[in-house]
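Lesson 9: reading folded outputs for more than one chain in a single document. The general rule is that every protein is listed as its sequence immediately followed by its structure tokens, and records are never interleaved. Here is the first one.
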Amino acid sequence: MIAAILSAILPVFLVVGLAFVVRRRFTLDAKTLSTLNIYLFIPCLVFADLSQRRLEWAVFARYAGGAVLMLLCMTALLRFVAWLRGLDGAPQSAFMMTMFMNLGNFGLPLCKFAFGDEGLALAVVVMVCGSFLQNSVGVYFAQRTHYTVSESFRRVLKLPMMYAFALALISQRTGFQLPLTAFRAIRITADAAIPIQLMILGILLAETRLDTRANVFIATAVRLCAGPVLALCLATVLGLEGLAAKVFILQMSGPVAVGMSAYGVQFDVEPRFLASVVSWSFLCSILSVSTVLLVLSKLSF
């Protein structure tokens, strides 16, 4: 089991490390990459993956409900911790953004290696639900220090990811297919989303000295410790069983999403703090996720 986990995680570390080395030798612009990621690569990834997959709507509904409940629980918990720490403004917004877990480049390969192709298919459904919230609520938290609440949500609705999600659902339900040439172009672009996110992280690591203040490790601990416990409780409440429950719990137990560091750069919201939490949670997840897998192997749903 440990070998399986390491074989899923280590390639991701290698990509981040390569970007780190390249940035040390050459000048690269992380903000340009993050702009491409938000406005081009992510929408293409959402459309390409979701439009081509047949979803079990009962499982999708439970996963969607679980993602929303996880969001609400983590929001309440992090807001309380932020209040205890005296955080406000941009630091509070950045602290709240650490609730979002890495469902794609970390969760997908891990679920595939731990649970096989069936687990991977379920993990994709969780990723779709979580990505929708990350790219809407996550962006709201990133922008709210600069705009009013209503303006922040209006700006969220301008993101192409939202419409890619809607178009993918329409395409799946109606059977409409884009011309092959157009879809291949979208697929090629979509395939760049995950490595670009990892490269952004590597560049950020090379450009900044990692923050070691208490708030970084508190946010890391909340994500990696509270996440699995809340996910286990929610899986029980939602009536998830068997493999569907295990995949949900494992996906919700991952480190902070790489996209949050990209949003920190894009919207100038504590980029060093967010890059540090992403990095530390990523490193510490080797131990925490191994523990989650061990616990899941002992549980019966």
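And here is the second record, again sequence then tokens.
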Amino acid sequence: MKKAFVFVALFALLALTSVAFSQEATPEMMGEGVMATPGQEVGMLLLPKFLGILPFDQAHEGALEAAAELQNPTELIFDGPTPENSVAGQIEIVTNAVTQGLDALMISNNAGDQLAPAAQAAIDAGLTIVTWDSPIPSAEGEQVFVAQVDFDETGKVLADMALSILGEEGGQFAILSASPDAANQNAWIAAMQEVLATDEAYASLELLDIVYGNDQSEESYNQALGLIDSYPELDLIVAPTSVGGPAAAKALQDEGLCGEGTDNSIVVTGLMVPAEVVAYTENGCTPEFALWSFVDLGYLTYYVTYLLATDAIEAEAGVVFEAGRMGTYEITADPTRDAGLRVLMGPFTVYNIDNVYPAAGIEAPASS
């Protein structure tokens, strides 16, 4: 990760070689952060938006890695609702957790502020509540949000990729998002709209519409087809969702608008998992996209939650802690919301044909 430092006297050079931060460091942060005491029993549940998509499985993998390192004798629970029942299902799981003997919940929120009352009730009952991937917008009912990347930066990354693909002349694009209640998606879209409205470098990009596929492949596929029918001059679909992106690419490919033997008249970019779109990157339907490591996000989230649940740290701005192989982090005020605390992971990786193969775990063709 790229880090910013405040240098203090003669300790500066030493700090530069030994300490990395997601935020700007303070003098108090120049020493080591709080370390976890392994082996404590903490009943923890990792709650994705819903079950059945690869990024959340990868986050589970990372959380299991952290659980093994921390030697928590209590098995990690990985549970979530179905895509069709995500909002009500998440609220039900959080509500029931209070009576199930759990100590901590790690939530990727798909219910917006609708989740806040149930989450706050869980905190009042003594549970630790950490959000990850997608926060509670008001921050009510969460102690800390583990952010994969800076949400304001996400908007610029999306705009940069759109401009990179369309060129200086720009063009018309639409956004295919997840659900209207997904706090992370909404924040990323708002940040992108802010960039488009305030930076003349993106004046050639015209946003036509925002549609929602609810992170379901078939619905996202159909929404992409609807965009094609509604906007004859459409050049690009921006999908800040790992389900919507591949579904849109398949829709465009099936319609003969991108891929081998076409002129790639409409293509897709956004936030996607390399393994799921490598074929579309290869054939030109998804020439460029970005993401972060969900394995690392699950790993870091588990560390934060374990430290809070074992009272090793408090949910307070300025607290510095160690997160295993990922290094030193600080809890800060969340600058992208009106309230709340944040731990910022980062960074983005932008993928294209030059780097997608190793990220997807496959060998590049000899001709690449």
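What the second record shows: The longest strand covers residues 205-212.
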